[in-house]
Amino acid sequence: xxxxxxxxxxxxxxxxxxxxxxxxxxxxxxxxxxxxxxxxxxxxxxxxxxxxxxxxxxxxxxxxxxxxxxxxxxxxxxxxxxxxxxxxxxxxxxxxxxxxxxxxxxxxxxxxxxxxxxxxxxxxxxxxxxxxxxxxxxxxxxxxxxxxxxxxxxxxxxxxxxxxxxxxxxxxxxxxxxxxxxxxxxxxxxxxxxxxxxxxxxxxxxxxxxxxxxxxxxxxxxxxxxxxxxxxxxxxxxxxxxxxxxxxxxxxxxxxxxxxxxxxxxxxxxxxxxxxxxxxxxxxxxxxxxxxxxxxxxxxxxxxxxxxxxxxxxxxxxxxxxxxxxxxxxxxxxxxxxxxxxxxxxxxxxxxxxxxxxxxxxxxxxxxxxxxxxxxxxxxxxxxxxxxxxxxxxxxxxxxxxxxxxxxxxxxxxxxxxxxxxxxxxxxxxxxxxxxxxxxxxxxxxxxxxxxxxxxxxxxxxxxxxxxxxxxxxxxxxxxxxxxxxxxxxxxxxxxxxxxxxxxxxxxxxx
Length: 511
Fold this sequence. Notes:
Layout: H1 8-16, E1 25-27, E2 33-35, E3 37-38, H2 49-58, H3 71-91, E4 98-103, H4 106-121, E5 127-131, H5 140-145, E6 148-152, E7 154-156, E8 161-164, H6 166-175, E9 180-186, H7 198-207, E10 211-215, E11 239-243, E12 254-259, H8 260-264, E13 276-279, E14 284-286, H9 301-317, H10 319-337, E15 343-345, E16 359-364, H11 369-380, E17 382-383, E18 385-387, H12 392-406, H13 412-421, E19 425-429, H14 436-457, E20 460-462, E21 468-470, H15 477-480, H16 483-490
Parallel strand pairs: 3-17, 5-6, 5-9, 9-10, 10-11
Antiparallel strand pairs: 1-2, 4-12, 7-8, 11-12, 13-14, 15-16, 16-19, 18-19, 20-21
Helix pairs in contact: 2-9, 3-9, 10-14, 11-14
């Protein structure tokens, strides 16, 4: 489908239309059904149709790997092996020196494996340097397995917080000279979309004998990766981790790309079938082959193949083209959102100071983030996310900074009320399928909320967990989809159990 595309407009139009769920409709509190606008790709991207087609065609050939004794096993083994090759090609990693393996629960699983392995590999280096902007999956595993984790702050700009402070990172490496195992850094923040200079950080870490581990969960879908092959090899990356569920693939097959030398001479973290050459009652011999030695047990074969299909499609199109097109959409979104009355956009936005991709987090100055997210969903069918996005320290730092900027103009009571409402944020995040029209829908909705906020607020109750629930209307998930109803229908039950009924509450948007 994508082979031979040269025109940037053509390829993007094809990808934009090639996602499952773009045309899904839901009922809303207005009493009407409408097409959903999906702005939650930082949590999970929609699956590309081309990926699903590949899996549908592959499914009759599905069999376990590690065998060539029958035809289906030959196909599965070959394609599962190719999936590893595709990951390395997509990430620009030299297959002679780097390898990759899959783990079962996304970036979190990969980071835990890496932390355990590198702690065992270099036990005398018991410190990890990371940043204060990290997702919990690139923070807590290091805290669990190392004596000390140093959190480097972000650069402070006149208006907000920017990328990680390289001067302070250098100072942290110097202060713990000889003790730092690795620097763990996100390529792109899942809260602000701010990008860190990962290759500069790699060179800095290597000068101090430390490794660099990159969390590419948010980065991989938005900009090119180049693990190796730089003009200076100190800029090469040692370990990169990401997940298929943020790359238009099914489920969450986690991916670890690493230098072979880091894993070659140590006992694999997990043992079992597939990672050994021979087993006796009193001993066993671990395979020297990658990735087999790091993938004990039966792997998620469809997940790996689905991810490889997505990476191949993106790679054929060109991540540089995808990045350029998303940059235009992102800049358009920042420009339009800046016109919403009372909006607070978090993180440095000036392109001369930071590079950003994929994510914009914000608050309306006089509205609770949970209320804003609920209304966007209930009345406008716009899917966003709110709260702290598994990056609590980073969110708190930026919210605190935004409150300091207005502290002089507010009373203590007003400031406390605002702090309570802004204990989290609203996040809109984009994928290849989003368009300027999606941004326009979001901006129009936020302007309406800004104008009619008090009227809307009267229709909601705040729950003990901080969420907001409509007093007169509720979305019935079982009317839209239920596994039990579908199975009953397919097995001869009452098909009516799974029919979608139009919402008849007759509620309208308050005027």
